Amino acid sequence: MPEQPATTLDLTQFSREPGESRTMEIDLYLPPIHLAGQDYGFVPDTVPARIALIFTGSGFNIEMKFSASLEGECWRCLEPARIDLDVDVQDFFEIERPPVGEMAEEDEASFWYEEDGTLNLSAWARDAAAEQLPSKILCDPECRGLCPQCGVNLNVVTCGCEPPADSRWDKLRELLD
Ligand SMILES: [Zn+2]
Ligand SMILES: [Zn+2]
Question: What is the rounded CA–CA span in Å between residue 31 and residue 122?
């Protein structure tokens, strides 16, 4: 599926009175995540999100909350896997962006903040969701994967293949021969 335009938030539209706060519900588009050479898409790819922002004098403190489900291939059995995520992130976006080169490397917020004062909520949301993913995408933590010999899905059937030969097994066979 083609990627949709990112959901953005124009920070220039908000009042810059220190302490001024706003809360809003938006439809947030979640772009796919590329992992281990595969595309993992959110289903649905647009979810309701809650945005709370407060102006502090030098910038906006913004909190974004949403729930989403990511779907794609299980790393062991290649069947569909689904990961449910509850994302709640917060970051600070300065009004005066430091000139390029003076930006602190750990200043992640600047990745999603454009020169014209718009914030790329979709990119921020995707990165926040990616950080919450488990280290392996599995259909089930107990997934048994595919038989290394015949390739059947061991969650569905037991194939009866011999376990892979190891040296102990070879010694036993020599004794029997
Ligand atoms: Zn699996
Ligand atoms: Zn087998």
Answer: 7
- Pairing status of strand 118-120 against strand 33-35: unpaired
Confidence (pLDDT) at 162 = 81
With H, G, I as helix, E, B as strand and everything else as coil, classify residue 160: coil
pLDDT of res. 94: 85
**How much is the average pLDDT of 166-174?**
61
Ligand nearest to the CA of 164: 2
Q: Residue 138 pLDDT > 70, yes or no?
A: yes
Residue 96: the pLDDT is 72
Instruction: Note the ligand closest to the C-alpha atom of 82.
Output: 1
Peptide bond into 44 cis (omega under 30): yes
The vertex-39 CA angle with 29 and 80, nearest 5°, equals: 100
pTM over 0.90: no
Q: How many CA atoms lie within 13 A of 125 on its CB side?
A: 32
Token digits for 167? Answer: 């040296």
Cβ atoms within 10 Å of 170's Cβ, excluding its own? 9
Ion ligand 1: residues, CB within 5 A, are: 74, 76-77, 139, 143
